[in-house]
Amino acid sequence: MKIKSVQCAILCCVLFMSPIVFGWSAVGHKIVAQIAYDHLTPDAKKAVNQLTFDPEKHYSGRSRFVYWSTWADWSRDRGDNRFRLWHYIDLPISYQVAQSRSPNPINAVYGINHCQIVLRNATDSIEDQQTCLKLLIHIVGDIHQPLHASNRFSVNHPKGDQGGNSFQIRSRVADNLHAYWDRGLGKFTPLQKRSATTGVRIWQYAEEIQERYPIERFNDTSSAIGWANEGRSIAESYVYQIPEGSTPSKEYHDQGIPVMEERLALAGYRLAAMLNSIYNK
User: Fold this and answer.
1) What is d(CA 47, CA 34) in angstroms, rounded to the nearest whole number?
2) How many folded domains does the chain comprise?
3) pLDDT value of position 236
4) Best exposed site among 78, 90, 189, 222 by fewest CB in 10 Å?
């Protein structure tokens, strides 16, 4: 199925369901892309370098790959709603015996699986393959943000809290739980300011994360739905363990940073493994 063939169906879904959803900030997505690029095989690296190549921009393959990691948010924020539902999957969490509902079938898992099919099909157009590579880099990152894989139903939020977007907190970092995690619990804030050294500092942070959570620690054969279930479990057991309307404690913050960094590492390693599987000859 080509990208254009699903456009109408997705736009129809957006008309009926358009929650406010954002992913890791640009910093988080760039970290995931940096980590993934480090673990691409030569064949996979050659393939993605060819897809990202732009004769008018003389950047390295790594820089182009990292730059593409934020395209899905950039295009959505400028009115392109074709893939809006692909950024998350609302796996329900019931709290206080609230009734929940199943996630929309057009979701992050659907998007990841669809993009793999297009990238594996050499007969699909270069344009579709480029779009799917941009989306895959981004959505694999998104699905590892626990609140992009969950939606908590409670007395206060009987229709769900939109992955923590409606779950209010008091913090200088963000006013809701979803944004707090999107921004790396405040860890990304110093890296969000544009400067001549920002790119290098993000790359250095990606290196530090890989040192703390080396790929050798993970023996992973799970699929996209497995990653989503993993994120939902983390959301229920840890992310939501804070009273609504409260200020995140130092303990919550300090324990959450390793959780966040491990999710970024896993996203990078899994994205690389997926692309290696697609492009290895």
Assistant:
1) 16
2) 1
3) 97
4) 78
Nearest by Cα to 65 from 221, 204, 268, 261: 268
CATH of the domain at 12: 1.10.575.10
Tell me the mean pLDDT per 10 residues along the chain, length 281.
Answer: 44 36 82 98 97 90 96 96 97 89 96 97 95 98 98 94 98 97 95 84 97 91 92 98 97 98 97 96 70
Inter-residue contact 168 to 175 (CB < 8 Å): yes
The pTM of the full predicted model, rounded to 2 decimals, is 0.90
Q: 280 and 44 in contact (C-beta within 8 Å)?
A: yes
Report how far residue 261's alpha carbon sits from residue 28's, in angstroms, rounded to the nearest whole number: 9
Question: Could you give the CA distance from residue 69 to residue 247 in angstroms, rounded to a whole number?
Answer: 31
Domain holding 105, by residue range, is 3-279
Compute, in degrees rounded to 10, the torsion defined by CA atoms 219, 221, 225, 227. 10
Q: Which amino acid is at 193?
A: K
